[in-house]
Design brief:
By secondary structure, this protein is α+β, with helices and mostly antiparallel strands. Helix content is 30%, strand content 28%. Strands 7, 8, 9, 10, 11, 12, 13, 14 and 15 form a 9-stranded mixed beta sheet that branches. It has a 6-stranded antiparallel beta sheet with strand order 2-1-6-5-3-4. Helix 6 packs across helix 8. It starts with a strand and ends with a helix. Bound molecules: 4'-deoxy-4'-aminopyridoxal-5'-phosphate.
Length: 286
Amino acid sequence: MSRIVYVNGAYLPEEQAKISVFDRGFLFADGVYEVSSVLCGKLIDNEGHLARLHRSLSELDMATPASDAEIETIQKTLIAKNGVDQGLVYLQVTRGAADRDFAYPQGVAPSLVMFTQNKNVIDSPQARNGIAVIGVEDIRWRRRDIKSVGLLAPCMAKMQAKAAGADDAWLVEDGYVTEGSSSNAFIVSAEGVLITRQLGNEILAGITRKAVLKLAQEQQLEIEQRPFSIEEACNASEAFITSATTFVMPVVSIDGNPIADGKPGRLTRRLRELYIQAALDSVDEA
Ligand code: PMP
């Protein structure tokens, strides 16, 4: 079934939606994006996603295409037009269309594209059973804090994982895990300490990561924000990833080694429940 998508001011059937061949998103990956999840037809944690969008735009000296209120109206209109109950809204801003030149063009209007995707975010076999990951060298650029649409390196990492019979990759730089191919990475030590890498240019500041750390704090869990190696993760008692569309997803094996008994961990399942409950509560309030 054809979706209604949004392109630069117009709501169109997806077949009719067009972007210029001169768009710098197409030519240079000169653009940034955000993905907000949708539960019961409502946006989850959207304020955080819009705040991060502004940060990405400002790091790249890119103009803001619309106010937050306008963006949110478009997101909600797409959810309604496409009847999305569970899934996501994707949003992309590029520097716009101009003659091909490495230097940023001046006075060009940014492009704004948005679309929805249906996805079963609450109940999936992977959420129930956990996923297998492998360590893959992190060959991405050094500004992973910017949510750039230049995503070929994580695509390659994910394909390497699939070729090895795993579900996803944990990216490794200088002997330490940076993050997942499209998620933040967490482990729980034998002593019950929740460990995830500290923020910096090396990783994306996940909106779900932040929410989960807050929930963990409320549960009086001990938290350490520091790098960890694949070896430490293999010996952990639990492992999981976080992202807007996977929430808290258990990791049950790393490089073929089962984590503990090879089943989703207790704390992981608890944090997933708490995150979903908080998301559902926010939907009720909206
Ligand atoms: N790191 C990377 C590299 C990602 O692509 C994503 C998801 N887009 C995340 C972390 C998780 O961020 P969020 O929780 O905001 O979806």
